[in-house]
Amino acid sequence: MLYREAGQFKSTYAEDQQIFPIRQDRIALALLLLFAFVVVPMFADEYWLSAIIVPFLIFSLAALGLNILTGYAGQLSLGTAAFMAVGAFMAYNFVLRLPWLGIIPSFILAGLCAALVGIVFGLPSLRIKGFYLAVATLACQFFVLWAIQRWGWITNNSATGVITAQEVEILGYEFSSPASKYLLTLGIVAVMALLAKNLMRSETGRAFMAVRDMDVAASVIGIPMMKTKLLAFAISSFYCGIAGALYAYTYLGTVEPEAFTLDLSFRILFMIIIGGVGSILGSFLGAAFITLLPIFLNRLFGLISHGFDLEISHAIVSNIELMIFGGLIIFFLIVEPHGLARLWQITKEKLRLWPFPH
Amino acid sequence: MSRAGRIGETVLSVEGVSLAFGGVNALQDVSFDVREHEVRAIIGPNGAGKSSMLNVINGVYHPQHGTIRLRANGAWKEFHDMDPHEAASMGIARTFQNIALFKGMSVLDNVMTGRNLKMRTSFLEQAIWIGRARREELEHRRAAEEVIDFMEIQHIRKTPVGRLPYGLQKRVDLGRALAMEPQVLLLDEPMAGMNVEEKQDMSRFILDVNDEYGTTIVLIEHDMGVVMDISDRVVVLDYGRKIADGTPDEVRADQAVIDAYLGVAH
Amino acid sequence: MTDLSFFFEVLIGGLLAGIMYSLVALGFVLIYKASGVFNFAQGAMVFFAALTFVSVVKMGVNFWLALLITLAVMVVLGVSIEKIVLRPLVNQPPITLFMATIGLTFVLEGLSQIVWGSQPHALELGIPDVPMAWLLDTANINISQFDLFASGIAAVLVAALAIFFQYTRIGRALRAVADDHQAAQAVGIPLKHIWAIVWAVAGFVALVAGLMWGARNGVQYALTFIALKALPVLILGGFESIPGAIIGGLIVGASEKLAEVYIGPMVGGGIESWFAYVIALLFLLVRPQGLFGEKIIDRV
After folding, report:
1. Which chain C residue lies closest to A139 (C-alpha atoms)?
2. How far is B266 from chain C (nearest CA, A)?
3. Contact assignment for B87 to A207 by CB distance below 8 Å
4. Cα separation of A229 and C271, whole Å?
5. What is the mean pLDDT of residues B153-162?
6. Using CB atoms, which residue from C94, C108, C277 is nearest to A138?
7. What gap in Å lies between CA A25 and CA A145, rounded to an integer?
8. In terms of C-beta distances under 8 Å and separation of at least 24 residues, what long-range contacts does B95-98 make, across chains too?
9. DSSP state letters, C27-60
């Protein structure tokens, strides 16, 4: 009975348009933000912050980007990691060669570079559909990685192709501690999530979904195919590019091209399948799930091997992890194709009645 | 005022259109005109090419020969290879026989997509959601709600369309087309699969659209009773050719039409 | 060595490498033809087959018996996949099925390595990877005996599959199911049996491909990603054509090798990693249905 919208009437369309029209949701969100921005950095231990929470945020952002393209606009992409790579390496170049720009503008420019690459490799989507499009994004994935390794200027002619991300400094303040990196990442991700939510609720989002659901009908209504699809690629790649830049600057530090292989693209695809395609919340849920699962499994197997005095090799654990990922994908596709986000919605529906059974 | 009194000058003209797929001739040298504010029916036995004709008018198919001329904003535009979305921007809207609704979206969202051509704000403004973007969204929300009221689907506005029964989906389809504020509305078998009551409702909606908004309507329909009741003039197609053109009464009495429907060899 | 004979060496080497891709692509075509599913897990099936065979042989089992055992395992695997993964998803859009096969890939990879371990294995088929002596002596062209043998096997396999599809009752039933499930059921074709058969045959094809690839490159984890190379092959050859898979493979293999040798040095080398995909992409832009596919008309 706590979670009831009784008594909350919307008398204008403006009120109905809010992201969180139910008051309880607004309160929950405010508490969550308070927790994230204030409580976590004060109390979380450094390992958790830098090894788990920051990558979770970064992957959420990348998953968000992929969701915009694949979940909302229906264009399958297997090149997510390539767009992240563009963001990471171009951010490095901007900070290196134009140091007066500042980190945030460098990130934004890097994102725009990623958007440009996205548009180029998104051009085939005008003629190709469904998983044939996956081939175009695969071409992008392999080509971008090859280019980064072969075009010396990208890595500042580093012999190994590895670059070291510079220190993040904004307006004289150095973001070097785990807590400060966390706050920077959180801030960027939160803002971009808000922008994405606004965008998907408005006409752009509807146009994307129309193209996804039935593009001939969308065309008949007057939605321009080319502009819409390319915009989806551009925005999605921008998000992935920023995620890539964050990946380099607030998590990896030393960045090698091998960090952005096809494997990563698949991981992010899994995040949106499990979390929920076409859902902003789903991107976060999926990223959390995939980031936390290996840790959970490690602890679990640690317990089992201690408890039963068994020797379970690391290789076996990581293979079991593979199987569980694959199995979960299949499970979710069969049982709940809309992923965790839908399960969350169903929970909220049940909460409206709780604690009463009906 | 009688409906005949409101009918204006020619607004759409189909001239010598021929369409073929591979070796199959869907349409052969079809010509007819549509006058402003009228309800024009296209009828004919199965496979006569009626849907293909609509598809040509709104640019889904490109005819091998012939042109379509449309009077938009006072000027005549001639075309034979435009895109569907160009057709939409010129004021032609349509519904589909198989209800091409956006299954992943709610009724309200589907109707709102019809407002797409009228929205001007860029995606950046929409992302930041202040000022112009907000106001535009609200303004079009109001327009969409008017259409929703008109089609009497307020009670299901937030329901995902995939969950609606067939009859209601058809109404949403019509609503989405209306949201475009079209000059010419193409209806592809709007009453297919409906029972008597649903057909009466749909007929009422179509006539109301024609009355209140003055929209010119071109519709394909199999139910003769409906056609006779609501149309001003009728075109009859058979095997891709036009075999009759006139008022419902004239067409009903035409021997060629009777032969076509009875399957008399010709 | 003259330029021309070098060119031929590269060309023929590429063509033969392409045949290897075709072997994998054949498995895809089979499943796609019969059920419309793009089985991303075909590569993992190839890996699993090779690994099972090699491990059974290592346990001391005779070559031919090991072959039979592996075949049985692959058939069981294929049938189980059809039953557990695909049947529940039978009415979903193709993209969902595709993603399910991606998930399946990971399951198979993990399973293979848990059961048989993750070190690379060598696979001996008795045919050495050495140049054909008489070719080397007479025309100064270096072509591997093994590659020729693999092409021979592929040719036999293709012929067998083509005959199977065209002339046998089951083959006809398979083609009917591929065309229209419901119509096929209406004439009494038992869908579930058919799909089980298809997956079993795909398992067999995976075994042959696994043996060839395993012998050539060793049986290791990377084998799973051969599946990715099959994608450009299928795009060129069409997803439903058996001869198309061969021709697509030949084109991909040859153009990849030629590009690497002749264009590669100009841009830093290593273009084999993406060249095939770009070719496939350009091809899609011009002819989305591949060389042998059927044109798709969008009816509204």
Report:
1. C277
2. 29
3. no
4. 29
5. 90
6. C277
7. 42
8. B95/B170, B95/B173, B95/B174, B95/B176, B95/B177, B95/B185, B95/B186, B95/B187, B95/B188, B95/B190, B96/A217, B96/B173, B96/B188, B96/C300, B97/B51, B97/B188, B97/B189, B97/B192, B97/B220, B98/C300
9. HHHHHHHHH----TTHHHHHHHHHHHHHHHHHTT
Please report, for residues A245, C27, C38, C163, the alpha-carbon distance to residue C30 in angstroms, rounded to integers and kept in the order given: 43, 5, 10, 13
At B179, is the pLDDT very low, low, confident or very high (cuts 50, 70, 90)?
very high
Query: Pick from B187, B225, B220, B182: which is nearest to B206 by CA?
Result: B187
Contact between C272 and C229 under an 8 Å Cβ cutoff? The reply is: no
pLDDT at B225 over 70: yes
| C107 closest CB neighbour out of A127, A149, A326 | A326
| pTM of the predicted protein model | 0.87
User: How would residue B1 be classed by pLDDT, with cut points 50, 70 and 90?
Assistant: very low
Strand ranges, E, within B90-249 = 92-94, 184-188, 216-220, 233-238, 241-246
Going by pLDDT thresholds of 50, 70 and 90, the confidence category of residue C23 is confident
Q: Do A221 and B127 touch (CB under 8 A)?
A: no
Which residues are CB-contacts of C269 (< 8 A; sequence separation ≥ 6)?
A150, C260
Cα gap B90→B76, rounded to integer Å: 11
Least confident of C131-145, C219-233, C268-282: C131-145
pLDDT at residue A357, rounded to an integer: 65
Q: Is the pLDDT of residue B2 over 50?
A: no
A64 three-state secondary structure: helix
Nearest CA among B236, B232, B229, B230 for reference residue B253? B236
Q: Is the pLDDT of residue B72 over 90?
A: no
CB contact under 8 A, A218 and B113: yes
- Residue B29's SS3 state is strand
Which of A347, A165, A142 lies closest to C281, judged by CA? A142
Q: How confident is the model at residue C230 (pLDDT cuts 50, 70, 90)?
A: confident
- ipTM exceeding 0.90, yes/no: no
Reported as type and span, the H/E element at residue B54 is helix B50-57
Q: Do B94 and A195 touch (CB under 8 A)?
A: no
Give the nearest partner residue to A213 out of B88, B105, B137, using CB atoms: B105
Residue A84 pLDDT greater than 90, yes or no: yes
Per-residue tokens: A120 = 């180029």
Which H/E stretch holds residue A91? helix A80-97
Does the CB of A200 have a partner CB in chain B at under 8 Å? no
Helix, strand, coil share of chain A (percent; to 5): 75, 0, 20
- Find out whether A91 and A248 touch, Cβ atoms under 8 Å: yes
Q: Which of B60, B93, B129 sits opposite A198 (nearest CB)?
A: B129
For C40-91, the pLDDT digits (tens) are 888 888 888 888 888 888 888 788 888 888 888 888 888 888 888 888 887 7
Instruction: Report how far residue B68's alpha carbon sits from residue B14's, in angstroms, rounded to the nearest whole number.
Output: 5
Look at B137 and A198 and tell me if their CB atoms are within 8 Å: no
